[in-house]
Predict the structure.
Amino acid sequence: MKGAMRRRLLLSAASAAFAIPALRRAAGSPRHATLQRRHVVGYQGWFVCPDEQNRDDWFHWFHRMQDGQLRPTFDMLPDTSELEQGEGCPTPWTDRAGRPVRLFTAQDARTVRRHFRWMREYEIDGAAVQRFVSILSHARRRAQADRMLAHARAAAEAEGRAMFLMYDLSGTDDQGLRALVEDWRRLVEEGQLRSPAQQFHGGRPVLGLWGLGFRDRPLTPEAVLEALSALRGVAGAEGLSVVAGVPAFWRTGTRDADPSLRWREVYASVQVLSPWTVGRYADAAGADTYLRQVLRPDMAAAGAAGQEMLPVIFPGFSWSNVMKARQREARLNQIARRCGGFYWRQAANAVNAGAGMLYTAMFDEVDEGTAIFKLVPDRAGQPAEPAFVPLDADGCALPADWYLQLARGITRGLRGGRLPAQPDI
Protein backbone atom coordinates (compact mmCIF):
# COMPACT_ATOMS: atom_id res chain seq x y z
CA MET A 1 0.00 0.00 0.00
CA LYS A 2 1.19 3.54 -0.71
CA GLY A 3 2.43 5.41 2.33
CA ALA A 4 -0.12 8.18 1.89
CA MET A 5 -3.00 5.75 1.97
CA ARG A 6 -1.60 4.09 5.06
CA ARG A 7 -1.45 7.43 6.82
CA ARG A 8 -5.06 8.18 5.85
CA LEU A 9 -6.28 4.86 7.25
CA LEU A 10 -4.42 5.39 10.50
CA LEU A 11 -5.69 8.95 10.78
CA SER A 12 -9.23 7.67 10.27
CA ALA A 13 -8.81 5.30 13.21
CA ALA A 14 -7.20 7.98 15.35
CA SER A 15 -9.86 10.58 14.64
CA ALA A 16 -12.56 8.08 15.59
CA ALA A 17 -10.98 7.71 19.02
CA PHE A 18 -12.27 11.16 19.96
CA ALA A 19 -15.82 9.90 19.38
CA ILE A 20 -15.45 6.78 21.51
CA PRO A 21 -16.94 8.25 24.73
CA ALA A 22 -20.13 9.10 22.84
CA LEU A 23 -20.31 5.59 21.41
CA ARG A 24 -20.10 3.62 24.62
CA ARG A 25 -22.86 1.04 24.92
CA ALA A 26 -25.04 0.52 27.93
CA ALA A 27 -23.58 -1.57 30.74
CA GLY A 28 -24.38 -5.27 30.85
CA SER A 29 -24.35 -8.05 28.29
CA PRO A 30 -25.68 -7.27 24.82
CA ARG A 31 -28.88 -8.97 23.78
CA HIS A 32 -27.11 -10.89 21.01
CA ALA A 33 -23.91 -11.82 22.79
CA THR A 34 -22.64 -14.76 20.74
CA LEU A 35 -22.67 -16.48 17.35
CA GLN A 36 -22.41 -19.87 19.02
CA ARG A 37 -25.42 -22.06 18.17
CA ARG A 38 -26.71 -19.29 15.93
CA HIS A 39 -28.02 -19.60 12.38
CA VAL A 40 -27.64 -16.40 10.38
CA VAL A 41 -28.55 -15.55 6.81
CA GLY A 42 -27.05 -13.19 4.29
CA TYR A 43 -29.45 -10.35 3.48
CA GLN A 44 -28.79 -8.51 0.21
CA GLY A 45 -31.56 -5.91 0.47
CA TRP A 46 -30.47 -4.42 -2.85
CA PHE A 47 -33.73 -4.71 -4.81
CA VAL A 48 -35.24 -1.41 -5.93
CA CYS A 49 -38.44 -0.37 -7.71
CA PRO A 50 -38.71 2.77 -9.85
CA ASP A 51 -39.97 5.93 -8.15
CA GLU A 52 -40.90 9.43 -9.33
CA GLN A 53 -37.30 10.62 -9.20
CA ASN A 54 -35.85 7.53 -10.88
CA ARG A 55 -38.48 6.08 -13.17
CA ASP A 56 -36.14 3.56 -14.76
CA ASP A 57 -34.41 2.31 -11.61
CA TRP A 58 -35.01 -1.44 -11.45
CA PHE A 59 -31.77 -2.14 -9.57
CA HIS A 60 -31.14 -5.90 -9.45
CA TRP A 61 -34.50 -6.68 -11.06
CA PHE A 62 -33.95 -5.63 -14.67
CA HIS A 63 -31.21 -4.41 -16.97
CA ARG A 64 -32.04 -2.16 -19.90
CA MET A 65 -30.37 -3.53 -23.00
CA GLN A 66 -28.94 -1.51 -25.89
CA ASP A 67 -32.15 -2.04 -27.88
CA GLY A 68 -34.13 -0.42 -25.04
CA GLN A 69 -35.70 -3.65 -23.80
CA LEU A 70 -35.76 -4.54 -20.11
CA ARG A 71 -34.23 -7.94 -19.42
CA PRO A 72 -34.73 -9.57 -16.01
CA THR A 73 -31.60 -10.27 -13.99
CA PHE A 74 -33.09 -12.77 -11.53
CA ASP A 75 -33.93 -16.47 -11.78
CA MET A 76 -36.52 -17.01 -9.04
CA LEU A 77 -39.72 -15.09 -8.44
CA PRO A 78 -40.42 -13.98 -4.88
CA ASP A 79 -43.84 -14.71 -3.43
CA THR A 80 -45.29 -11.21 -3.05
CA SER A 81 -48.81 -12.28 -2.10
CA GLU A 82 -48.46 -10.64 1.32
CA LEU A 83 -47.65 -7.17 -0.04
CA GLU A 84 -49.96 -4.44 1.24
CA GLN A 85 -51.77 -1.82 -0.81
CA GLY A 86 -49.21 0.49 -2.40
CA GLU A 87 -46.29 -1.79 -1.56
CA GLY A 88 -43.98 -3.09 -4.26
CA CYS A 89 -44.24 -2.39 -7.97
CA PRO A 90 -45.98 -3.84 -11.02
CA THR A 91 -44.09 -5.60 -13.80
CA PRO A 92 -44.97 -5.99 -17.49
CA TRP A 93 -46.05 -9.58 -16.78
CA THR A 94 -49.04 -11.60 -15.73
CA ASP A 95 -48.80 -15.17 -14.52
CA ARG A 96 -50.36 -18.10 -16.35
CA ALA A 97 -53.65 -17.47 -14.54
CA GLY A 98 -53.70 -13.87 -15.75
CA ARG A 99 -52.81 -12.31 -12.38
CA PRO A 100 -50.40 -9.37 -12.31
CA VAL A 101 -46.85 -10.18 -11.23
CA ARG A 102 -45.45 -7.76 -8.66
CA LEU A 103 -42.00 -7.29 -7.22
CA PHE A 104 -40.84 -5.69 -3.98
CA THR A 105 -38.38 -2.99 -3.03
CA ALA A 106 -36.13 -3.08 0.01
CA GLN A 107 -36.51 0.70 0.10
CA ASP A 108 -39.91 0.11 1.72
CA ALA A 109 -39.71 -0.36 5.50
CA ARG A 110 -42.81 -2.59 5.44
CA THR A 111 -41.13 -5.07 3.13
CA VAL A 112 -37.93 -5.27 5.15
CA ARG A 113 -39.93 -5.62 8.37
CA ARG A 114 -41.83 -8.54 6.84
CA HIS A 115 -38.57 -10.24 5.90
CA PHE A 116 -37.27 -9.96 9.45
CA ARG A 117 -40.62 -11.12 10.77
CA TRP A 118 -40.23 -14.23 8.66
CA MET A 119 -36.79 -14.71 10.20
CA ARG A 120 -38.37 -14.61 13.64
CA GLU A 121 -41.28 -16.88 12.70
CA TYR A 122 -38.92 -19.48 11.22
CA GLU A 123 -36.35 -19.19 14.03
CA ILE A 124 -33.49 -17.71 12.00
CA ASP A 125 -31.35 -15.91 14.54
CA GLY A 126 -30.18 -12.95 12.52
CA ALA A 127 -28.82 -11.46 9.33
CA ALA A 128 -25.51 -10.38 7.90
CA VAL A 129 -26.67 -7.26 6.07
CA GLN A 130 -24.63 -6.87 2.90
CA ARG A 131 -23.00 -3.54 2.03
CA PHE A 132 -21.06 -3.34 -1.21
CA VAL A 133 -17.97 -1.15 -1.10
CA SER A 134 -18.27 -0.64 -4.86
CA ILE A 135 -21.41 1.52 -4.46
CA LEU A 136 -20.02 3.88 -1.82
CA SER A 137 -18.84 6.37 -4.45
CA HIS A 138 -22.28 6.41 -6.14
CA ALA A 139 -24.44 8.94 -4.27
CA ARG A 140 -27.84 7.44 -5.15
CA ARG A 141 -26.81 3.84 -4.53
CA ARG A 142 -25.18 4.73 -1.23
CA ALA A 143 -28.32 6.60 -0.14
CA GLN A 144 -30.38 3.54 -1.03
CA ALA A 145 -28.01 1.30 0.92
CA ASP A 146 -28.23 3.65 3.91
CA ARG A 147 -32.03 3.60 3.76
CA MET A 148 -32.18 -0.19 3.54
CA LEU A 149 -29.72 -0.51 6.42
CA ALA A 150 -31.88 1.76 8.59
CA HIS A 151 -34.93 -0.35 7.69
CA ALA A 152 -33.05 -3.56 8.50
CA ARG A 153 -31.80 -2.23 11.83
CA ALA A 154 -35.29 -1.11 12.86
CA ALA A 155 -36.82 -4.40 11.71
CA ALA A 156 -34.21 -6.48 13.54
CA GLU A 157 -34.81 -4.51 16.72
CA ALA A 158 -38.58 -4.86 16.45
CA GLU A 159 -38.48 -8.59 15.66
CA GLY A 160 -35.79 -9.49 18.18
CA ARG A 161 -33.32 -10.59 15.50
CA ALA A 162 -29.59 -9.96 15.49
CA MET A 163 -27.79 -8.21 12.68
CA PHE A 164 -24.29 -7.22 11.71
CA LEU A 165 -22.87 -5.39 8.74
CA MET A 166 -20.98 -7.40 6.14
CA TYR A 167 -18.96 -5.35 3.67
CA ASP A 168 -18.66 -7.07 0.30
CA LEU A 169 -15.29 -6.27 -1.29
CA SER A 170 -16.17 -7.52 -4.79
CA GLY A 171 -14.51 -5.22 -7.32
CA THR A 172 -12.64 -3.32 -4.58
CA ASP A 173 -8.94 -2.55 -4.77
CA ASP A 174 -6.57 -1.24 -2.10
CA GLN A 175 -7.69 2.33 -2.70
CA GLY A 176 -11.31 1.33 -2.11
CA LEU A 177 -10.44 0.27 1.43
CA ARG A 178 -10.18 3.94 2.36
CA ALA A 179 -13.84 4.44 1.41
CA LEU A 180 -14.72 1.37 3.48
CA VAL A 181 -13.00 2.70 6.60
CA GLU A 182 -14.60 6.13 6.21
CA ASP A 183 -18.03 4.59 5.67
CA TRP A 184 -17.62 2.43 8.78
CA ARG A 185 -16.51 5.45 10.81
CA ARG A 186 -19.64 7.35 9.75
CA LEU A 187 -21.97 4.47 10.57
CA VAL A 188 -20.38 3.95 13.98
CA GLU A 189 -20.70 7.65 14.75
CA GLU A 190 -24.37 7.48 13.75
CA GLY A 191 -24.99 4.69 16.26
CA GLN A 192 -24.71 1.39 14.40
CA LEU A 193 -23.01 -0.30 17.36
CA ARG A 194 -25.50 1.09 19.86
CA SER A 195 -28.39 -0.77 18.28
CA PRO A 196 -29.82 -3.50 20.54
CA ALA A 197 -29.88 -5.67 17.41
CA GLN A 198 -26.09 -5.52 16.95
CA GLN A 199 -24.52 -8.97 16.99
CA PHE A 200 -21.64 -9.51 19.40
CA HIS A 201 -19.22 -12.41 19.75
CA GLY A 202 -16.41 -12.92 22.21
CA GLY A 203 -17.32 -9.70 23.98
CA ARG A 204 -16.92 -7.56 20.86
CA PRO A 205 -19.27 -6.33 18.13
CA VAL A 206 -19.21 -8.36 14.94
CA LEU A 207 -18.24 -6.93 11.56
CA GLY A 208 -18.15 -9.01 8.38
CA LEU A 209 -15.72 -8.55 5.50
CA TRP A 210 -16.43 -10.72 2.47
CA GLY A 211 -13.93 -11.27 -0.32
CA LEU A 212 -10.53 -11.71 1.36
CA GLY A 213 -7.89 -13.79 -0.38
CA PHE A 214 -9.70 -14.76 -3.57
CA ARG A 215 -7.58 -15.50 -6.61
CA ASP A 216 -7.40 -12.89 -9.40
CA ARG A 217 -8.76 -10.04 -7.24
CA PRO A 218 -6.89 -6.76 -6.81
CA LEU A 219 -6.75 -6.53 -3.00
CA THR A 220 -3.37 -7.04 -1.38
CA PRO A 221 -2.96 -8.65 2.04
CA GLU A 222 -0.83 -5.76 3.27
CA ALA A 223 -3.61 -3.26 2.58
CA VAL A 224 -6.22 -5.50 4.18
CA LEU A 225 -4.20 -5.87 7.37
CA GLU A 226 -3.89 -2.10 7.69
CA ALA A 227 -7.60 -1.63 6.99
CA LEU A 228 -8.48 -4.21 9.65
CA SER A 229 -6.43 -2.26 12.18
CA ALA A 230 -8.22 0.95 11.23
CA LEU A 231 -11.67 -0.65 11.40
CA ARG A 232 -10.98 -2.01 14.87
CA GLY A 233 -9.76 1.39 15.99
CA VAL A 234 -12.96 3.04 14.79
CA ALA A 235 -15.03 0.58 16.85
CA GLY A 236 -13.30 1.69 20.05
CA ALA A 237 -11.28 0.11 22.80
CA GLU A 238 -13.20 -3.18 22.62
CA GLY A 239 -12.26 -3.69 18.99
CA LEU A 240 -14.18 -6.10 16.77
CA SER A 241 -14.86 -9.75 16.18
CA VAL A 242 -14.28 -9.96 12.44
CA VAL A 243 -16.09 -12.55 10.34
CA ALA A 244 -14.01 -13.01 7.18
CA GLY A 245 -15.60 -14.34 4.01
CA VAL A 246 -12.70 -16.25 2.48
CA PRO A 247 -12.18 -18.72 -0.38
CA ALA A 248 -13.33 -22.30 0.09
CA PHE A 249 -9.69 -23.37 -0.23
CA TRP A 250 -8.17 -20.66 1.97
CA ARG A 251 -6.19 -23.15 4.06
CA THR A 252 -4.30 -24.70 1.15
CA GLY A 253 -4.08 -21.60 -1.04
CA THR A 254 -5.37 -23.55 -4.06
CA ARG A 255 -8.21 -23.37 -6.58
CA ASP A 256 -10.26 -20.26 -5.66
CA ALA A 257 -7.64 -18.93 -3.21
CA ASP A 258 -4.71 -16.59 -3.85
CA PRO A 259 -1.58 -18.67 -3.15
CA SER A 260 0.37 -15.77 -1.57
CA LEU A 261 1.57 -16.72 1.90
CA ARG A 262 0.84 -13.20 3.12
CA TRP A 263 -2.88 -14.00 3.05
CA ARG A 264 -2.25 -16.44 5.89
CA GLU A 265 -1.43 -13.44 8.06
CA VAL A 266 -4.83 -11.99 7.19
CA TYR A 267 -6.63 -15.24 7.98
CA ALA A 268 -4.77 -15.52 11.28
CA SER A 269 -5.79 -11.98 12.26
CA VAL A 270 -9.56 -12.54 12.27
CA GLN A 271 -11.76 -14.25 14.83
CA VAL A 272 -14.17 -16.18 12.56
CA LEU A 273 -13.46 -17.70 9.14
CA SER A 274 -16.37 -18.24 6.77
CA PRO A 275 -15.29 -20.07 3.59
CA TRP A 276 -17.49 -19.38 0.56
CA THR A 277 -18.88 -22.65 -0.76
CA VAL A 278 -21.55 -21.46 -3.22
CA GLY A 279 -20.84 -23.19 -6.52
CA ARG A 280 -17.93 -25.23 -5.12
CA TYR A 281 -19.99 -28.43 -5.31
CA ALA A 282 -23.35 -29.27 -6.89
CA ASP A 283 -24.80 -32.39 -5.28
CA ALA A 284 -24.77 -34.54 -2.15
CA ALA A 285 -21.68 -36.44 -3.27
CA GLY A 286 -19.81 -33.18 -3.81
CA ALA A 287 -20.94 -31.85 -0.44
CA ASP A 288 -19.75 -35.07 1.23
CA THR A 289 -16.37 -34.84 -0.50
CA TYR A 290 -16.04 -31.24 0.63
CA LEU A 291 -16.85 -32.32 4.19
CA ARG A 292 -14.12 -34.97 4.23
CA GLN A 293 -11.40 -33.18 2.31
CA VAL A 294 -11.95 -29.54 3.26
CA LEU A 295 -14.43 -28.72 6.03
CA ARG A 296 -13.21 -31.11 8.71
CA PRO A 297 -9.51 -30.21 8.18
CA ASP A 298 -10.47 -26.52 8.10
CA MET A 299 -12.30 -26.80 11.41
CA ALA A 300 -9.35 -28.60 12.97
CA ALA A 301 -6.88 -25.98 11.72
CA ALA A 302 -9.05 -23.08 12.88
CA GLY A 303 -9.59 -24.66 16.28
CA ALA A 304 -5.87 -25.26 16.74
CA ALA A 305 -5.27 -21.57 16.01
CA GLY A 306 -7.91 -20.44 18.51
CA GLN A 307 -10.30 -19.36 15.76
CA GLU A 308 -13.84 -20.35 14.86
CA MET A 309 -15.59 -21.37 11.66
CA LEU A 310 -18.88 -20.12 10.23
CA PRO A 311 -19.65 -22.66 7.48
CA VAL A 312 -21.69 -21.47 4.50
CA ILE A 313 -24.59 -23.57 3.21
CA PHE A 314 -26.79 -22.78 0.21
CA PRO A 315 -29.98 -24.26 -1.30
CA GLY A 316 -29.03 -24.26 -4.99
CA PHE A 317 -27.84 -21.92 -7.71
CA SER A 318 -29.12 -20.41 -10.96
CA TRP A 319 -28.12 -17.22 -12.78
CA SER A 320 -29.31 -17.78 -16.34
CA ASN A 321 -31.14 -14.45 -16.68
CA VAL A 322 -28.37 -12.27 -15.28
CA MET A 323 -25.93 -13.97 -17.66
CA LYS A 324 -28.25 -13.30 -20.60
CA ALA A 325 -28.31 -9.64 -19.60
CA ARG A 326 -24.51 -9.78 -19.85
CA GLN A 327 -24.88 -11.47 -23.25
CA ARG A 328 -23.58 -14.77 -21.93
CA GLU A 329 -25.23 -18.15 -21.51
CA ALA A 330 -25.82 -20.15 -18.35
CA ARG A 331 -28.11 -23.08 -17.71
CA LEU A 332 -31.31 -22.45 -15.75
CA ASN A 333 -31.40 -24.35 -12.44
CA GLN A 334 -27.67 -24.94 -12.75
CA ILE A 335 -27.31 -26.42 -9.25
CA ALA A 336 -30.61 -28.13 -8.57
CA ARG A 337 -32.15 -27.80 -5.12
CA ARG A 338 -33.34 -31.42 -5.15
CA CYS A 339 -36.48 -30.47 -3.26
CA GLY A 340 -34.43 -29.17 -0.34
CA GLY A 341 -32.28 -32.26 0.06
CA PHE A 342 -29.12 -30.50 -1.14
CA TYR A 343 -29.52 -27.69 1.41
CA TRP A 344 -30.29 -30.07 4.25
CA ARG A 345 -27.35 -32.35 3.41
CA GLN A 346 -24.86 -29.49 3.74
CA ALA A 347 -26.37 -28.39 7.05
CA ALA A 348 -26.32 -31.94 8.44
CA ASN A 349 -22.71 -32.41 7.35
CA ALA A 350 -21.60 -29.20 9.07
CA VAL A 351 -23.60 -29.61 12.28
CA ASN A 352 -22.75 -33.27 12.72
CA ALA A 353 -19.06 -32.47 12.14
CA GLY A 354 -19.21 -30.12 15.13
CA ALA A 355 -19.90 -26.72 13.57
CA GLY A 356 -21.10 -24.30 16.24
CA MET A 357 -22.65 -21.74 13.89
CA LEU A 358 -24.07 -21.62 10.34
CA TYR A 359 -24.47 -19.05 7.57
CA THR A 360 -27.13 -19.57 4.91
CA ALA A 361 -26.41 -17.89 1.60
CA MET A 362 -28.77 -16.18 1.09
CA PHE A 363 -32.16 -15.03 2.42
CA ASP A 364 -33.30 -12.95 -0.56
CA GLU A 365 -30.80 -13.57 -3.38
CA VAL A 366 -33.04 -14.39 -6.34
CA ASP A 367 -30.49 -13.09 -8.88
CA GLU A 368 -28.35 -16.19 -8.39
CA GLY A 369 -31.15 -18.46 -7.24
CA THR A 370 -29.91 -18.96 -3.66
CA ALA A 371 -32.89 -17.33 -1.88
CA ILE A 372 -34.66 -19.17 0.94
CA PHE A 373 -37.49 -16.70 1.62
CA LYS A 374 -40.99 -17.25 0.25
CA LEU A 375 -40.85 -18.04 -3.46
CA VAL A 376 -43.38 -18.75 -6.20
CA PRO A 377 -43.84 -22.51 -5.88
CA ASP A 378 -44.97 -23.54 -9.37
CA ARG A 379 -45.20 -22.43 -12.98
CA ALA A 380 -48.82 -21.37 -12.60
CA GLY A 381 -47.58 -18.38 -10.62
CA GLN A 382 -45.01 -17.40 -13.23
CA PRO A 383 -45.29 -15.63 -16.58
CA ALA A 384 -45.00 -17.77 -19.69
CA GLU A 385 -41.85 -15.87 -20.63
CA PRO A 386 -39.09 -15.42 -19.60
CA ALA A 387 -38.15 -18.62 -17.81
CA PHE A 388 -37.72 -18.74 -14.03
CA VAL A 389 -37.04 -21.55 -11.56
CA PRO A 390 -40.15 -22.49 -9.54
CA LEU A 391 -39.91 -24.55 -6.37
CA ASP A 392 -41.36 -27.58 -8.17
CA ALA A 393 -38.57 -27.56 -10.78
CA ASP A 394 -37.19 -30.84 -9.42
CA GLY A 395 -40.51 -32.65 -9.39
CA CYS A 396 -41.74 -31.91 -5.86
CA ALA A 397 -44.87 -29.91 -5.02
CA LEU A 398 -43.66 -27.56 -2.30
CA PRO A 399 -45.20 -24.64 -0.40
CA ALA A 400 -43.83 -21.12 -0.88
CA ASP A 401 -42.19 -21.21 2.56
CA TRP A 402 -40.55 -24.61 2.19
CA TYR A 403 -36.98 -23.35 2.52
CA LEU A 404 -37.89 -21.25 5.54
CA GLN A 405 -39.31 -24.40 7.11
CA LEU A 406 -36.04 -26.18 6.36
CA ALA A 407 -34.10 -23.25 7.83
CA ARG A 408 -36.12 -23.57 11.05
CA GLY A 409 -35.32 -27.27 11.24
CA ILE A 410 -31.64 -26.50 10.65
CA THR A 411 -31.66 -23.90 13.45
CA ARG A 412 -33.16 -26.41 15.88
CA GLY A 413 -30.63 -29.06 14.90
CA LEU A 414 -27.77 -26.60 15.30
CA ARG A 415 -28.94 -25.72 18.80
CA GLY A 416 -29.08 -29.37 19.74
CA GLY A 417 -25.80 -30.23 18.05
CA ARG A 418 -27.28 -32.93 15.80
CA LEU A 419 -29.22 -32.97 12.53
CA PRO A 420 -30.89 -36.10 11.12
CA ALA A 421 -30.05 -37.25 7.63
CA GLN A 422 -33.52 -36.29 6.40
CA PRO A 423 -35.60 -33.22 7.28
CA ASP A 424 -37.89 -33.75 10.25
CA ILE A 425 -40.13 -30.68 10.14
In short: The chain has a mean pLDDT of 93. The longest strand covers residues 126-132.
